[in-house]
Amino acid sequence: MSKSLFGKFLFVLMLAFVLLIAACNSDEGGEDSSDNDGDDTEQNESDDDDSDSDSDSDQELYSIDDFESYTGEGDAIDGGSLTFGLVSQSPFEGTLNWQFYSGNPDSQVLSWFDESLLQYDENYNVTNEGAASYEVNEEDSSITFTIEDDVKWHDGEEVTAEDWAYSYEVIMHPDYDGVRGSSAGFAYLEGAQEYKAGEADSISGIEIEGEKTITFNYTELTPSLLTGGVWGYPMAKHVFEDIPVEDMASSPEVREEPIGFGPYKVENVVPGESVTYSKFEDYWRGEPNLDEVTLKVVSPSNVANALETGDVDLVDSFPADQVVDNIDMPNVQWLGMTDLAYTYIGFKLGDWNADEGEVNYKGDEMKMGDKKLRKAMWYAVDNETVGERFYNGLRWNGTTLIPPSHPAWHDDSIETPTYDEDKANELLDDAGYKDTNDDGYRETPDGEELVINFASMDSSDLSEPLANYYIQAWDKVGLNVQKLDGRLHEFNSFYDKVGQTGEDDPNVDVFMGAWSVGYDVDPSGLYGRDALFNFTRWANEENDELLAEGLSEEAFDTEYRQDVYSQWQELMVEEVPVFPTLYRAMMVPANERVVNYDISVGSGVYLYELGVTQEEPVVE
Amino acid sequence: MSENHSHKDIEQQVSEQQKEQEVQKSPSGLRIFWREILKDKLALISLIFFVLVSMIVFGISLILDLDEVVKIDPFAIHQPPSDEFLLGTDKGGRDVFGQLIIGTRNSLAIGFLVTLISGAFGIIFGVVSGYFGGHIDNFLMRIVDFFMVLPFIMIIIVFVTIVPRYSVWTFSLIMSAFIWMGIARLIRSKALQERELDYAQASRTLGSSHTSIIFKQVLPNITSLVVVTMTLNLAANIGIESGLSFLGFGLPEDTPSLGTLMSYATNPTTLEERWWIWAPAAALILVLMLAVRNVGEALKRAADARQRRA
């Protein structure tokens, strides 16, 4: 008997539980309904549910234009302290040196206490605002940098040209085991390869002229040098001199008591968990505002809670799929900027030739070889709706392959396909893709059945509905698109299949991926003939020429370079080896008390100005 | 009591039972089970409830258009329950009610299939092993031991990631391949006892073949054990399927199952504010498992004369 009693008890408990949840929810629904006023996009699809306003907050529409990247000036108090949340699933590695770090978490830790001598403007060009100013000498292809006089390491020593040269010597050292050393600043530097091979004792291209002046001689000047190519981080020679290069990454000078010349100095490192900084009074721009900064790791699932309770004031990034749900958090202000990234859909047009180290474009042999077919697939998808509905406007229709995060290079005058089903059908009919056997799907011009395999990543909550949405959209214009293996793929296996190792899975026809782009606009690392990451394996001569022109000496002239990249963007719209689907907003929350903080590059707001308006975080 | 049946009766029953096993939610062929269930009101209600839910779910899913249910509608994302969407919609604008129906059907179907496949295999394996004993038993049981030490959830997960396309059928086969050992061991120990009994010995002396003794005499005598174990296994298997789907290693996300609906609740906002997506599925899993268990417990009592209430 006792058993059946227990069963009944469980049943009642469960019922009570369900009812409780329902009750809780209706309360929340009531609160939500207050902030839907003026939301006109909602009306067209909720005509018949008159009193249901619970869900409307989900459907609210935002735009990146509504958000500033700057917190505003405000009345900062003298001193004060701030907690910075490093949003990461795992502990940070703790390789706290620009020459040796490898992951983004470490770079977040680093940027509080050490910085580049070079400062960039909003177009990611080097300016003279930083701790070093530059001068280009075109006749002998060199660039001369002069470091400001009062730039000092945290231990009081001057930052010298010697230190800067030393960081090159370490990175190019034969024993160096880090990942730096492939950017234009190293690749074009005279004598760097000889030094790396151990044939020379020093790098012949580096000339130290006095304590604060240094000249780098390049084999060729390329605009990439001044858009992130030149390595701008000096390395404190007086600290590291006696440590063998191969032991540096594990030395206490890198892991426990790192040194820099940034606005805050490291007080204490709890490996993987947190770092305490105090202000560096002799910082070269001036005395920092805050007395103390604490950085700690916060997991993505806790970050919203930590912000709400004032546990952290500021974070480095915020999980994109939680932004909309937390956008009404009362004690934070949301900063936003256009992310240096885009999502795209690519078409497999060849494979990788590992022997030659270049793509093997096979154009017409491939299933997706027809330009019109690819374009029709672009016309068939409604990215505007996807952005508005799935991301509430925080992602929006992509047009060209240079995202608007690079305003000087992004050409918004280019006409790109936008959702137009008729146009898609027309293009397909034109190209000879017709349904000849009445199965509801189009066949190839040769009358063969056309089944397109679509590979997509399982990266967020929305991956699966999105992939299905695109498949559905293509279905509507009569294309039979199937998920590769009938499911989504995990991050690494996805990139293995599309070809990050050079062994492309021949079953992939179409894939959806995302790129984040660097400061330098040059796209040859993603779309060049010899780029492994050119996953579509598409190449043509015009593309080769344009990419080369974009890096030529003439391209030092911004207008010329802009013209080159406009042509390139147009070429890519014309050829459609890939098409961008969504541009993204990067959203970062900051506690109401945080002032003088800017998440964008080149804003002229620097970290030492960061302040708080009250001692304790705002909590509501 | 069943042992007292005349030989003819038993044979009749066997054929009935074998049919019944395929749908073991209704073991009514065995009067004793039936009486015990009638006596236990909770088990009776549970049984009626379970049969009803199964009929509704399989019935409605015949009319429901799967393509329509899993169709993404960007204009109806996260709608709360309304006249149009009885249980609201999920993150892809899909009708949760439709997914719940098809999901329950899939979960139940997998539960049944896995129980049947693993049950059938396990019973044959166990009865052969127990009946012959000796070296054969020794050998077969080592195979069972080998399968027992495998971490079966892990292995199922690996299999599911390797097999390119899988459906309800393949998934059931993969699951069955790793959970037949429990029942095999149970049946084997029972068969070990049975073969020592006089009727088995006598049959052998009279020249019956092993096959006929195993399937016509030993097996019918352990039917009660089979029915009870399989019923209880059914609940467990529905649970395992839901758990795997919850973790993302069950059916693919666009093939609804109770577990995939539950897994939507891993998103904190969905858990807190969009109860209509996961709560019905959670409640259904709980109630279904309780129902099957209640029936199973009643059957278990019926199978053991000392615990019987009827």
UniProtKB/TrEMBL annotation, chain A:
Annotated InterPro entries: Opp4A (IPR050034), Peptide/Ni-bd (IPR030678), SBP_5 (IPR039424), SBP_5_dom (IPR000914)
Domain Solute-binding protein family positions: 130-527
Signal peptide residues on this chain, from the entry's feature table: 1-22
GO cellular component: ATP-binding cassette (ABC) transporter complex; periplasmic space
GO molecular function: peptide transmembrane transporter activity
Region of interest called Disordered, as start-end residue ranges on this chain: 27-61
Pfam families, A to Z: SBP_bac_5
UniProt keyword list: Signal, Transport
UniProt biased composition (Acidic residues): 28-61
Tagged with keyword Transport: yes
KW Signal (keyword) present: yes
Gene Ontology terms describing biological process: peptide transport
Entry's transmembrane regions: none
UniProt xrefs under NCBIfam families: Opp4A (NF045467)
Family per record: Belongs to the bacterial solute-binding protein 5 family.
Protein name in UniProt: Peptide/nickel transport system substrate-binding protein
Species assigned in the record: Aquisalibacillus elongatus
From TrEMBL, chain B:
Pfam families: BPD_transp_1 (PF00528)
GO BP field: transmembrane transport
Region span, Disordered: 1-22
Gene Ontology CC entries for this record: plasma membrane
Membrane topology listed for this record: Multi-pass membrane protein
Transmembrane segments: 42-64, 108-132, 139-162, 168-187, 218-240, 275-292
InterPro entries: BP-dependent_transpt_permease, MetI-like, MetI-like_sf
Keywords (A to Z) from UniProt: Cell membrane, Membrane, Transmembrane, Transmembrane helix, Transport
Gene3D superfamilies to which the protein is assigned, alphabetical: MetI-like (1.10.3720.10)
Start and end residues of each ABC transmembrane type-1 domain: 104-296
UniProt-annotated location(s): Cell membrane
Highest rank taxon of the organism: Bacteria
Family the entry assigns: Belongs to the binding-protein-dependent transport system permease family.
Protein name per the record: Peptide/nickel transport system permease protein
